[in-house]
Amino acid sequence: MHLLLIAGFLGTGKTTFSIQVATECIRQGRKVAMLVNEIGEIGIDGQLMRELDLDVWEMSNGCICCTLAADLVPTLEKLDQEYAVDLILMEPSGAADPESILRTLVYYKGRPLESIYTVTLLDPLRLPELYEVVTPLIVTQIANANVLFANKADLATAEQLEDVQRIATEVNPDAKLLLVSARQGIDSDLLKEILPWKD
Amino acid sequence: MEGLGLEPYAGSLRWYFHQEQPLEDWQALLLQFLEQLGLACTAGDKRVLGHIKCLARLSPGGYIRGSKISVAYPADVEVKGNTATSFAEMQLTLNILVYGLPHHETQLIVQTVGSAIAASQQGKIEILTTTSHHEHQHDHHE
Fold this sequence. Notes:
The complex is a heterodimer.
Chain A: E1 2-8, H1 14-27, E2 32-38, H2 45-51, E3 56-60, H3 69-83, E4 87-91, H4 98-104, E5 115-122, H5 127-133, H6 135-143, E6 147-150, H7 158-171, E7 176-179, H8 188-194
Parallel strand pairs in A: 1-4, 1-5, 2-3, 2-4, 5-6, 6-7
Chain B: E1 9-22, H1 23-42, E2 48-59, E3 62-68, E4 76-80, E5 86-99, H2 103-120, E6 123-130
Antiparallel strand pairs in B: 1-5, 1-6, 2-3, 2-5, 3-4
């Protein structure tokens, strides 16, 4: 079982992105479970994914990096034991710190996770402002990513994309930065780059 | 973010009119609602709009959803799937995530903005459920 963590601040397009990743996995014949965490009591993203017939587990009314952290491991273990999925696609709340989530995973005692990969979505339209005012959260989301996606690239100016590149390089020079538009559809070759199977 | 708490708001709202409204009018109404919520929620010092989003399921596989992420950029509303072309009521799930905005103020804003828009179009809004206050502090890396 593999784990793909899709991080990013509120409103960066994580749900649209996750749906495309899940759809690509299903197209490849893989069994995927989506674990969606919403900070509010009545979630929207899970409802949307169900509308699209995806297998969704919701953790609402809190954040899996802190208030719901104790529930995360049992949920993963249940997914492993009862559903034997190939991939868990985890979408934490946009207020979540991925580093805390990754730390929690050491307590997981199910089938060994063959890979843990973190993708962080960035919003070029707001990133410079958010980097100024919610600095610690943005920094940890970028710093803990294996790969960064500048989403909404179709709507961004060249200057905004340069700012994203500058901030990404400043915080996590090792992570590759890819420009995408989840709304317009992500090229399946790009999606394959973040999936654990290379066939 | 220091000192800026996040008190998530989640509610279920029912919009209704005496007569059926075309889908395009519902889209326009949601756009207006999101724009005005965005302005009202960020009116004040030290508030950071995270995300205002809403979803209404209109039919099996059909929905309308909206999103507002910044006052600098327009709200976005999209319809997907097969839906009726006109209807008289809609039940909407609304999430508001604004740093620095107390929950009780958000409740008041939703009621005020929703009622004003509904009244301006001879419709009504009913807030069916709202969540209790729950502050979420995310300063743990400082």
